[in-house]
Amino acid sequence: MDNPLHPFELHPLVPLSLFGLDISINKAVLVMWIVVALVLILFIRARSSGSLIPTKLQSLAEMLVDFIRGIIEDTMGKDGMRYFPLISALFLFILFCNLVGLIPGSYTVTSQLVVTGVFAVSVYALSVIIGFSVHGAKFLGVLVPPGTPGWLIPLMIPIELISQLARPISLAVRLFANMTAGHVILGVLFGLTIAGGVLIGWLPFAFTVALYALELGIAFIQAYIFTVLTCVYMGDAIHPH
Prior knowledge:
There is one protein chain. With 241 residues, this protein is mainly α. 70% of the residues lie in helices and 2% in strands. The protein has six helices and two strands. The protein has helices at 27-49, 56-76, 84-100, 113-135, 153-200, 202-238, and strands at 17-18, 21-22. The longest helix is centred in the last third of the chain and has 48 residues, at 153-200.
């Protein structure tokens, strides 16, 4: 049986180098381009239809916009709507990457830790920048929980600092691990289906179909969780407790 991690390997399709830096085009890069194109096509077509009776694309686009707006308002309040373009772009990119990755022969970009890590670090860094820009040096108060006795402050500050630094790590690993694990299991079950032949191959195939349906839900849930946590971190920066 083939190595189940083989589909996650990346090989240059178009080798490129810039000042000694490898910028080769590989399968992940192509999928990201496709995802960006799909999102743009969806909203451009939905916006250009201009029908009084919403088309299916219009309805889908409106549902997505309302859904993202609800996430922002529930976690960040009305002040968070200024970050709607960023949050919506993040949610749609991750969602479409997850969904496109389920197509046989495609590639799951979010199964790469470097991709989820860049997103997570960027989101956390942005929340810190927002916190300092809104509150100045007072934002450092997030390292001291309200009501902490003075003699505990030297102990609480390093604990809270570790807790803050763990946020981008957990954010990146959660998305990466869930998408990778699901695809590994699917790969193993497909291999068992082929190895089992006609007589017993139907059993792992049935599990594959059921798991594939579950992966569709997980693709949406993981994009939702990543977006919610992003809004929570940014909301904490705007309204620190």
